[in-house]
Amino acid sequence: MTAKVLLLDVVGLTADALRSMPRLSRMASAGSRAELGTVLPAVTCSVQSSVLTGRMPSGHGVVGNGWYFRELGDVLLWRQHNRLVAGEKLWETARHRTGGAYTSANLGWWYAMGASTDLTVTPRPIYHADGRKSPDFYARPPALHDELRDALGEFPLFQYWGPTASIRSTRWIVDATRRVLDRPDAPELTMAYLPHLDYDLQRHGPHAPEATRAAADLDRAMAPLLDQADAQGVTVVALAEYGIAAADRPVDVNRALRREGLLEVYVQDGREQLDPWTSRAFAVADHQVAHVYVSDPADVPRVAAILEGLDGVDEVLDRAAQARYGLDHARSGELVAVAAPGAWFTYYFWLDDAAAPEYARGVDIHRKPGYDPAELFFDPADRLAKAKAAGNLARKALGLRYAMSTVPLDPSCVLGTHGRLPDSAADTPLLLSSDPAFLDGAGDRVHATAVRDLVLRHQGLLGERMPQPAGHDRVAPR
């Protein structure tokens, strides 16, 4: 019989966070522990894809949480379909090696839509024809949707991201995962995504009292799931894609390119919009990494010089340098900028806040051409921001249209970030297991691409552990 595994993505889990998590610490002390050698960029979609395929971004193609889709002429972040990830996934390999006698479940890991897992649960809002957005989730098989909704209520979408993000969304995923483990046909592999540490560590920084409280709250929320897995003989493997480091320098890379005449905009209803079709260079900002797309190869040296001259840029990678990090893929920018410690990249391309696009002041992860951590805040400069949000929710309850324009355009409130390779043990992610033998022979540092084979080996579906790739898990870009 194949051993059952619960694979938890505990976002932001580091040694510092673990000190405030007694239940998870107890599991690690009785089991096994290592640092996780993450990939560049150290962001959700890229690292998860490396864990599940055993490939670097150059192999699976997920070069960030989003990128410029050249064939569409558009920047798209947080796409959901699994076909975007090249390579055989962990559960697919296991299924082949067991002649099909292997089942799997995905609760919240990215690229869940269209995946070949047997059970799938992933946030999926309802976008109404009148512009309203309501919480919901996608589930497969379809009957699982009503089963979970009736037992747990609607998925708390507005506590999953945005200024009201909280422990509620993580608790919902924990409770849903417990129900999956309780099924008579519980899968051999159950994957669950627990995002809670992402919120207050980006809001307040990793060393703030709020970060300590968030870790303790997450540990309490996880405890029933860990206890259940222990009682059922399910091996727990917990990892983080990245650790969160302190942030104090937002870098406006697109504004720099615009001032040099390389980035173009067009105007609709008095608001500026990024024009990637005509821009000679623009950046897709993603935490501490920015893919910079340059339409004319002759402009690459000039753009590289501009980026290298920006305060807060640590390294600029051309194609050859990208190859050293396993990031050389057709989806990558002609150049990739890596932020210095404490710095991170905004997506802002307008020069006057009065001309900012409407979506800039809202939580709008699919329209923004870059990641925006300021979405975790109500605008500190607007004393009425929370009251306005409450009024908009009242309008929504009445079925009226509303615009939730509460996000600040001053990014200095963001105090935590990630994306570059870790600079120290403090921001290095961890890999933990409840099984003392899970990491046998793996050492005290395991690369993200090796996790897939460690799980297969634990389940008796792999002989010798595959060698880890060399040269891609340096502690820092320099």
From TrEMBL:
Any single GO molecular-function term of the entry would be: hydrolase activity
Q: What is the lineage of its organism?
A: Bacteria, Bacillati, Actinomycetota, Actinomycetes, Micrococcales
Superkingdom of origin organism: Bacteria
The organism named in the record is Agromyces kandeliae
A Pfam family that this protein carries is Phosphodiest
Q: What is this protein called?
A: Alkaline phosphatase family protein
